[in-house]
Amino acid sequence: MIIIKYLYKAANKAGQTVEGVIEATDKKAVVYELRAKSLYLLNLSEINAKTSMEITIGSAKIPKRVLSIFCSQFSSILKAGVPLVQALTMLEEQTDHKKFKGILASVCDDLQRGKGLSESLALHERALPTIMIQMIEAGEVSGTLDLSLDRLAVTFDKDYRIARKVKSAMTYPIIVGVVAVLVVIFMLAFVIPKFVGIFASMNTELPGITKAVMGLSDFVINQWMYLLGGILLIYVLFKMFKSSEQGRLALDTFKLQFPLVKKASIRLMSARVSRTLSTLTATGIALTQSLRIASKIVNNKLAEHKLLEVEEQIKQGRSLYEAVGAAGIFPSMMMHMAKIGEESGTLDQMLERAAEYFEEEADVAVTRLTTMLQPILLVIVAVLVLGIILAVLVPMISIYTNI
């Protein structure tokens, strides 16, 4: 079932005009839902890349670090008794992020026209996380907006710190890989050609490894445009495959099943899901809706499909513990914590503890992964360089022994 967002304009019995964003399967469902609220539809348009009123260019999300600071400051200002519009104006003036500044300016204008905060933020859903919009809406309804913002600040800060650790841990292997490629290209393009003339003048049978390296060197020097074209073609095909539904599912499934990265990927995914569910359920959002939101931000297609299956099973009356266990991709720790939380009525607290556990485990798993990758990459570099050196030394030694 595909859920579409619509921007609607309707009138109530008093003749007052209201605007907002509503999710539904089709236009008829929108009409029925508005009628149930005693509203009469005046105008309806689907929100997409062309009709959205979003200020930002493209689909780039606002960085989690920026959102964490914003939510923390926003909560503090509201607790001090500052009115909503004035608080947002203050935050708009002090933020350095241009896209986010534009969004806040647009939201302030919408609030002055009578729209709600979450309703205004929903118009910028391509730049803002779904969890932020949903939790702010829950905070508005329950009158605990400041508490919702505090939880969002913690969630975004955790996401930012985990992403930074992963990025930092992978920096060294990436640098080693790039240096290895550059060294090999340099040797093939500038070192090997100096020996080609020498070997040609000897009129001796060259070893197979030397012939292979010389042929590769000739290809790099004289056919580099085909090499570059091939690399670009592979990159484009990979991007197309990755952007497709089946390709993304295949790659994300590979991440969760390939032994080398399996543990780190599962721990990172479980931490994100656990913290999201904990944050959402703590603010009063229904578990089924929380699971749907978590599926949108988990950043893994296989996990997304599994979470939607968990949602459907809960709707059918199964417990979260049973549904998570049936999914087959989540660690047993998450299942047990969910069971304890459901039985004791402290699901949000148990999931938060599970998230903290998985975050620590993910940190250890990523560290181990990079520790394993470093020697593997160094061995690969050493083998490549040694192979090129042997291609030069073997015929030189053969000639020397025959003198």
Plain-language structure description:
This protein is mainly alpha-helical and 403 residues long. It folds into three domains: 4-46; 64-157, Receptor-associated Protein; 162-403, Up-down Bundle (Receptor-associated Protein), CATH 1.20.81. The protein contains 16 helices and three strands. It has helices spanning 27-36, 64-79, 84-94, 98-112, 117-122, 130-142, 145-202, 208-222, 224-243, 245-257, 259-282, 287-297, 301-315, 320-327, 332-344, 347-402; strands at residues 4-11, 17-24, 40-46. Strands 2-1-3 form a three-stranded antiparallel β-sheet. A hairpin with a 5-residue loop joins strand 1 (4-11) and strand 2 (17-24). Helix 2 packs antiparallel against helix 7 (145-202), helix 10 (245-257) crosses helix 11 (259-282) and helix 11 (259-282) crosses helix 12 (287-297). The longest helix is centred in the middle third of the chain and has 58 residues, at 145-202. The model is unreliable at 48-59 (pLDDT under 50).
Feature tags:
single chain; 403 residues; mainly alpha; 3 domains; 3-stranded antiparallel beta sheet; 16 helices; elongated
Mean pLDDT over the residues: 84
What is the approximate shape? elongated
CATH topology name of the largest domain, in short, is Receptor-associated Protein
Number of strands: 3
CATH superfamily of the largest domain: Type II secretion system (T2SS), domain F
Task: Strand order, main sheet: write it out.
Answer: 2-1-3
Low-pLDDT segments: 48-59
Could you give the order of the helices and strands? EEHEHHHHHHHHHHHHHHH
The tally of domains stands at 3
- Helicity range of the residues? over 70%
Query: From the coordinates shown, what is the CATH architecture of the largest domain?
Result: Up-down Bundle
- CATH level 1 class label of the largest domain: Mainly Alpha
Contiguous helical run count: 16
* SS-derived structural category: mainly alpha
Strand content bin: 5-15%
Main sheet makeup: 3 strands, antiparallel
- CA-atom Rg in angstroms: 29 Å
